[in-house]
Predict the structure.
Amino acid sequence: MTDYRALIDAETWAFIERTNAWYPPETVDYTVREQREIYDRMCREFFAGYPKGVTAETTSIAAPGRDIPVRIYRIAERPAAAVVYFHGGGFVVGGLESHDDVCAALCAGTGYEVVSVDYRLAPEHVHPAQFDDALAAVEGAAARYGVPIVLSGDSAGGNLAAAVSHATRRWPKKPAGQVLIYPGLGGDPSKGSYVTHAEAPMLTARDLDFYRQIRTGGPNYPGDATLSPLADADFSGLPPTVIVTAECDPLSSDGETYRDRIAAAGGRAVWQEEKGLVHGYLRARHSVTRARDSFARIVDAVAALGKGEWLEG
């Protein structure tokens, strides 16, 4: 059994306890409506405001038969690149408010415009609704911006960013890079961190089973890279990729596997496992030194990819 008291420092434990006070581990057993109410309340508790100079506009991107709500963050008149960001939340919770300050901080740190996407959620909308919205949002951003576009997202959002990267790799104007933050990419649940960190604080294997089932409504889709990017048979042509995972997280092995498959196909990818951190640590960036340092590395990676540069590790 993993000894988390030895792996996780006092600052991170304080973050875990504060999170659990607002979003208890048993929340996964509540109704979806209750889960969303509790999650939104927790997000408001952690909201850190906008860095100086960042403004935001809530608008939409047109897609066939619907409009996709987005929030666009700006700090510069002529940004050198744009970021399309997909929020986490297991495809069940979250939206424009849940990652509002994260996107504002990413905008401030890079100087790029950040487009946060409010994709449809399960169970009201099952797969491939989330992927369809993500792809449509990137299509809209590609039409809007004449600058490089970097894809990014955390957890479920990392899954969507990767899935879109696979789907757009043959586009004439494909994304310039992707930065995936503790993403769930559809790895083998019988191996690696799925086993060693099955009972990790903040996210467990049982939680992942719930989110997996509710996203599809039950069916499995073997070989569907729009659901599980690691199921793709072809990893060639993907943009430069940075994957950042938390050590104490059942999803950590997905980052290592994804890096290895891109590298084996001749692509450029780096995987950074953040020691002693847990799933959801972006909200700890103001209170936990390790999380603050990791977020700085994430910002640097996004900034570099937007310039066509590459940072090793």
